Amino acid sequence: MQTVFSIAVDALAYGMVLFVISIGLSVTMGLMRVVNLAHGAFAMIGGYIASYAARDLGLGFGFAVLFAVFGTIAIAVPIERLLYRRIYGAPELTQVLMTIGITFCIIGIANYVFGPTLKTVPLPAALQGSVDLGFRSIATHRIFAILCGLSVAVALWYLIEKTAFGVKLRAAVDNAAMAAALGVRTEIVYAVSFAVAVGLAALGGVVGAELLPVEPYYALRYMVTFLVVVSVGGAGSIPGALVACLLLGGIDTAGRYLMPEFGEFFFYLAVIAIVCVFPRGLAGRTR
Amino acid sequence: MTMAAMNDAMTSAPGKGRKLGRDLAGLAAILALAVLGYFLFPNNLALLTRITAIALLVLSLDLVTGYCGVATLGHAALFGSGAYAAGIAAVHFGITDPLLMLACGILGGSLAGLVCGVVILRAHGLPQLVLSIALIHLFHEFANKASSWTGGSDGLAGIAPDPLLGHFEFDLWGRTAYVFGIVLLAVVFTILRLIVRSPFGMLCRGIKEDPIRIRAMGASPKLALMKMYVISGAVAGTGGALNAISTQVVGLDSLSFTLSAESLVMLVLGGTGSLFGALTGTIVFMFFEDLVSAANPFHWLTMVGALLIAVVLFAPKGLYGTVAGLVSRWWGTFR
C-alpha cells in the first residue's frame, strides 16, 4: 500500500512535469506541423536561467521562475523568426535536421557557458520538506509540481476554448490557409503560440528540475520522451497530451520502482503498443 | 508495369550506356578515394575503416529513407544487430572466420530489419518516427540486459578473427581490415546500384511518391517496403560485422539512438535518394567531426549543429544534390 501510494504520487508529479513541458510542443506541432526536436533544449535553457538567477544573482524562487520563462522566450523568439520560419511546410526530414542542429548548438553553448556539471534550482523553504496527510506524508515539491500542471491545463483550456485568440488558434490548426483568407493573421498566431509554448517549456524545466536534472545533455536525453508523449497523445490535443503524460508517467515510474534493472524497457514497449493500436495518438483526429 | 517503371524504361533506353558509365565512375571514385586515403592517412586507417562501416549504415538508411520515404531515427538497430551477431558468433560459438562472421552479421541485420520493418511500417509521419525511436531504445535496453551474451555496458570483447582467406592477418595497423572494408563497400555499392535501378527499386520510389496509386495499380506497397527493409538490414548488418571484425569489440553505442540520429544527419547532409549522396555525407560528416573534435573538443557539437543549420538553409538538397545540380547547370550553359 505504501509503495502503491508513493508510486502514484511520483507518477502524478512526473506526469504533470512532462505535461507542462510537452503541451507546448504538442500545440506547435499540431499548429505549425514542425517536428521540433529542439523543444527540450528550451526547457533546458529555462532550467539554466533559473539556476543562474537563484544561485548566482540570489533572486527568490518566484522571480527566478519569471526570469527563466521570459528569458527563454527572449532567446527563442529570434530563433523562431530567423530559422523556424524557413522550415514551416518543409519535409519532415529537413525539419528534423534543422532542429537537431539547433539542439546541438544549444547543448554546445550550454556546455561552454555553464560547464558539464549538474545545476540545481534551490527551492524556497516553503517548498522544502513534506506535507503530512495524516496517514502518509508527501514532499511539498511534488504537490507544487502537480498543482502547476493542473493550473497550466486549466489555463490552456480556458485560453483555447473561451477566448478570441483561442478561436483563431483553433481555426489556424484546422485549416491555416482558410483562416488566413478569413482575416486571421496566422503569422501572429504562430508567433504567439510559439512564445507560449517555449515559455511553458521553460516553466516545466524549472519546476521539474528536481525530477529531470538540468545538465547539457538534458536536451537530447529527454527530447525523445517529450516527442513520444506528443505522439502518443496526438499532436494538438490538450486532453490527449494530459492522458498520455499521466499514462506514460505512471508506466515509467512504476517500472523504475518495481523493476529498476530493466530501465526504460517497459516504457518503450508500452509506447510501441500504444502507437500500433492508435497510430494517430490517443486523441488524434483523422485528417 | 507501373508508371514509374515505364518512365524509367523510356529514359533508360537511350541512356543505358551513360548510366553504366556513371556506375563505373562511382566505383572508380570509391577506389581512388580509398587509395588516396591509404596513402594520406597511413597511421589513421582505423578511422577510415570506421568511416567505411558507417558508410554502409548510411547507404542502408538511404534505401529506406531516400528511396522509400520511411522516416526513421532508429536505424542503428540494424547496424548493431549485425555487429552483435558477428561478435556473438565469434565469442560464444567459435566462428572466427571473417567471412562466416560477415555472413552472421548479414543474417542478424536482415532479421533485425524484418522486425523493425514489421513495427515501423505500421504508422506514418510522426508516429513512425516515434516507433523507430522506441525500437532503438528497446534494442539498446535488451542488449544491456542480456549481458551474459552481449557483455552489457562493458561491451563484447575478445573477438579474434582468423586471417582473411587464411592468408591475410588482421594486423595492428588495420591494413587488412581497411582493404576488406573497401572491397565490401565496393561490392555492396555495385549491388545496390543494380537494385535501385531494377523495376523493384522503381516500385519503391513510386511508393514514396504515391502509395495509394501504387496500390491501385495492383502492387502491394507494404510487401515491397518490407523487402527493402530486409535488404537494408543486410547492408547495415554488413557494416556492423565489418565494425566488429575491424575493432574486435562491440559496444552498446552501436545500438544507440545517437548513432541512429548521426546516420540520418549524414544522409540528409549528403542528400537523400542518391547512393553518392549517402557516401558524400558520411565522408564529410565523419572527417568534419574528427577534425573539429580534435581541434576543439568543447565546441565540436556547436560546430556540427551550425553545419546542419547551414546545410538546411543553403543546400536543401544536401551537399551532393546541390553540387550535382550546379554541375549540370554549368554543363548546360557551356554546351
From TrEMBL, chain A:
Query: GO biological process annotations for this chain's record?
Result: amino acid transport
Q: Which keywords accompany this UniProt record?
A: Amino-acid transport, Cell membrane, Membrane, Plasmid, Transmembrane, Transmembrane helix, Transport
User: Membrane-spanning residues where?
Assistant: none
What membrane topology does this protein have?
A: Multi-pass membrane protein
Q: Where in the cell is it found?
A: Cell membrane
Q: Which domain of life is it from?
A: Bacteria
GO molecular function ontology, one term from the record: transmembrane transporter activity
Sorted alphabetically, the Gene Ontology cellular component annotations on this record are: plasma membrane
Keyword set includes Glycoprotein: no
- Family per UniProt? Belongs to the binding-protein-dependent transport system permease family. LivHM subfamily.
What protein is this chain from?
ABC transporter permease
From TrEMBL, chain B:
Membrane-spanning intervals of the chain: 20-41, 47-64, 76-93, 99-121, 126-143, 177-196, 223-245, 265-288, 300-320
Could you tell me the keywords of this UniProt record? Cell membrane, Membrane, Plasmid, Transmembrane, Transmembrane helix
Q: In terms of one coarse class, where is the protein primarily found?
A: membrane
Q: Where in the cell is it found?
A: Cell membrane
**What membrane topology was assigned to this protein in its record?**
Multi-pass membrane protein
Q: What InterPro entries does this protein map onto?
A: ABC_transp_permease, LivM-like
Q: Does the keyword Translocase apply?
A: no
Q: Which GO terms describe its cellular component?
A: plasma membrane
Q: Name one GO molecular function term.
A: branched-chain amino acid transmembrane transporter activity
Name recorded for this polypeptide: Branched-chain amino acid ABC transporter permease
